[in-house]
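ASSEMBLY PREDICTION REQUEST
Request ID: AP-0331
Submitted by: J.K., bench scientist
Number of chains: two
Total residues: 978
Priority: normal
Notes: Please return the full assembly, not individual chains.
Input sequences:
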Amino acid sequence: MAKELTSRAENYSQWYNDLVIKADLAENSAVRGSMVIKPYGYAIWEKMQSALDQMFKDTGHENAYFPLFIPKSFFAKEAAHVEGFAKECAVVTHYRLKNDGKGGVVVDETAKLEEELIVRPTSETIIWDTYRKWIQSYRDLPLLINQWANVVRWEMRTRLFLRTAEFLWQEGHTAHATKDEAVKEAELILDVYADFAENWMGVPVLKGVKSPGERFAGAVETYCIEALMQDGKALQAGTSHFLGQNFAKAFDVKYVTKDNQQEYVWATSWGVSTRLVGALIMSHSDDNGLVLPPKLAPIQVVIVPIYKKPEQLDEITTEVDKIVKDLKAKGISVKFDNRDTHKPGFKFAEWELKGVPVRLAIGPRDLENGTVEVARRDTLEKETLALQDIAHKIENLLENIQHNIFQKAHSFRDENTFNADTWNEFKDRIEKGGFVWAHWDGSDETEEKIKEETKATIRLIPVNGKLEEGKCIFSGKPSKQRVVFAKAY
Amino acid sequence: MAKELTSRAENYSQWYNDLVIKADLAENSAVRGSMVIKPYGYAIWEKMQSALDQMFKDTGHENAYFPLFIPKSFFAKEAAHVEGFAKECAVVTHYRLKNDGKGGVVVDETAKLEEELIVRPTSETIIWDTYRKWIQSYRDLPLLINQWANVVRWEMRTRLFLRTAEFLWQEGHTAHATKDEAVKEAELILDVYADFAENWMGVPVLKGVKSPGERFAGAVETYCIEALMQDGKALQAGTSHFLGQNFAKAFDVKYVTKDNQQEYVWATSWGVSTRLVGALIMSHSDDNGLVLPPKLAPIQVVIVPIYKKPEQLDEITTEVDKIVKDLKAKGISVKFDNRDTHKPGFKFAEWELKGVPVRLAIGPRDLENGTVEVARRDTLEKETLALQDIAHKIENLLENIQHNIFQKAHSFRDENTFNADTWNEFKDRIEKGGFVWAHWDGSDETEEKIKEETKATIRLIPVNGKLEEGKCIFSGKPSKQRVVFAKAY
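STATUS: Completed
Returned structure:
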């Protein structure tokens, strides 16, 4: 077919870009750095949203919606926060256009805002300004709120899904009476994210905390999940921040305790974004196209009729209608591709490119024999099965594929995880790709130098991980545990 | 209780504002004209979204996502469109802040955009710029796309839900090969909106088209649904636009027909917004608070225990657990309000304020008798029912309430719909409120003068309505049918 992909071996980066475009997931827009998410890509995001939203609700969270715009002065209230985000803010300065007298429009300079508005890059400031009004007493706590929203960060180098100026995400913002409760919340959400990554996306993740240099701007501790892509680079798939009392102090949010004392409130925030679609693509897909885990596939089963004469199609359709009905009764999404404009070979390649987990092909001989050809996308294996009880067989096969996709990614990660004990070994391993566990002396300076020399960053520090005395790979200073290094997206 | 509302009779406008705040639906934010949608208000919007989204999908539409920002030059391409929206646009001019050296931040003047970006007030321009790339042949049509998004219109006078600078909505944008097909699409969506308003919101609506003066900027025809609020003012609850080839011409979107001819594509766009939450509140609620139709109520049933001793609560809880289980099995959302911090009377008032359709109260005597007290929010009636088969009885009651809410609003509209045949009669009727059917000569000038003198606007012109010769209420010129006038939100 016409839509051939660059192979991963040839050029992984080009393969990714080709795939996003050719599988109709997204494309660049006329606005620098902003993408258009096409229906097939958006359908994957909707499935992600739906699963995550249920998980948040099951853990006691409610959705709300806060303004897109944030007054500039709010930003300056938390010093680390503004330092982290000021350099990538879209700024609204005017609220009106006018005719330029030449058929175009210009900004109306008389409609200048007294205070500029920032398009939210994240919403801690506007939300904590609001929480001041909502929280008076310990009875108002905890406050467990999430919002689904778009945010803007003026990134200079963008890539579809992975890094875009505007992206879609969810951001949770919770308020608690005690430090302990807030830390537990941040950890709970990390577990929710890891559960989602592994059991829905089929992407194994490591859990840990960021080094101080990689923390969210304004956080006391940033928890993260990290996944390994097929090119050996790491991808941060979600973060959950323990914010201490930083935002409560910046926005003066206090509560009255049971003992009638005034105390600052403890906070968390946490988010995952459309970046997860990029992670999903890069974890499983191959040189034929997307490989989607059944739980997130917009279409789980496609059925392609094989026929020469119209009356054969009629007979096949009668049989297919029964299969479709049985599959739908099990909650399985199915598409009967009966287009007469394309040949089966074209359709096979197209649905492979789009990552549909199971493909059924059925022709006159199958009808005679009471069989159907079943192809699975993950292994590209085919087998001919009896039509009897086929919906049940496919249901099992989808579960099997979901499991297999995760196992395959897990094996890949295992094969690409290493210890390094000398600087040369470290540089060599980092160059080849993968997660590298190594000792680090805990200083920002060493972290920075390692990054300069190898482009590797500390992806995470394990929490409650195995303690092991060792020497820093770079400085030789003492260290109590290994941390995980990798080159990253 | 403390949260007393202003009565509708005393001050309808104040009643509405009080209710939105006191029922915890929304509040004003620190950003002028932008609201914070609180969890209870957002839960209503989520229910609306979910129902509408399914209706769009059932009629063949897919979701996608287009950029928040629109290049300024795109706006100038469709003359009527820019004229309609240029005066209320938020404009992004810079992409960076910097420290001001005094602990604050200022806009970095070196980071000025070459071309300003408009925060989308609606997305026709960016979408039709994209469609140019997606549409080549008749095989690419129809294109049936919807997006859920936030938009910004710099309104000067804002009211929670009804008119805010930023609001949430869905916007459908479809492309068709023929005029006829596009008109049918605009009409289909109008029917979907009317179905949703009547059968989910319980709000009866009139369907028709706008006069040229009230059309969407860039449309050939604007279809609308109009509802009547309890103060006798009309509220436009949804619009569906037939855009002709205006945007296809502005953005050069042509397709090759089956006969191999190049033709411009035909378009529609359509939207409903968080304004519907305002319409819902104003249609049904009373001086005790919200009245929510069961299909959109975040909590459909609340259960309040009546007890003096803890062991009584234990016994009640055992019985309530069974009721909750049976209700949930029927898909009914239920909350057991067992807070020990508040008395039953407080709880009754609170759930009345929040519009929960059905309230159950159960005490020791009920346990003895095998009964429960059932109160319905719409009529405030109470009755004592046997516990046997209670879930089934409540299921029927919820259906009954859904129906009754609609009937009540329908009767109200009937009682407040009038014909007017003289100018004095017209002025008098308009002053009193309600829908007024009257003859109009079809001219912009007359429409404008009627508005100046009475504040009434033409809400809609019936499509395929009864033809009736008559004379314009204002000019005396001949007219072929009555149109609907009202003062409006």
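REVIEWER COMMENTS: The longest strand of chain A covers residues 166-176.
SIGN-OFF: pending second reviewer
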